[in-house]
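Here's my example:
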Amino acid sequence: MEMKKIKIINLGRMDYQEALKIQEDLLAKRQEGKGMDTLLLVEHPPVITLGRRGKYSNIIVPEEFLKANNIKIYEISRGGDVTYHGPGQIVGYPIMDLRNHGRDIKDFVWKIEETFIRLLDKEFNIKASREENKYTGVWIGDKKITAIGIAVKKWVTMHGFAFNVNTNLDHFNWIIPCGLADRGVTSLEEILGEPQDLNKLNNLVAEYFCQVFDLVPEMERL
């Protein structure tokens, strides 16, 4: 049986709204059965997003501070609460037609988590875990290293994951991440004690994502 393919597009550093427009265009095409499944990899300037259950009370810095630093807030259609995106973080947006992947949303999220659990274990000997039936994402102890928030529209996915590589963790003090006041965040840089090669990590994320989802990658740049 021929393996399914996925297009991997590295967008580089891109404004959140610009990347969202690309997602929405790809989503509409996949809903019509056009194009192919795509994984967008991107790094954003500092931005805060609120999911469907997001509360503005979980943004804990004054509005004036955000305006003065040109940090925008976007209300978006993914699940989950508030999250932060910024430089040094690998954000992934899988635009995938789940009608070709078993129509199983829970399995889709499990596989995203598995991507990072395997990557951290095999490449860095870091033991990460998931908290099934409790919180989504990938955890090292009680600190989250990969946040996950998706939307599924007519069986096609959008939004996705945020993997902290060299992320400035101080910026998470602007929010209560995912609305969980008793949990922390971490990054690969914090764990290993030095900044990591983001290009290398982008390639590893694509490799492990395809391995877990049993897909053949087709690399492309916009």
Summary: The chain has a mean pLDDT of 92. The chain has one domain: 4-221. The radius of gyration is 17 Å.
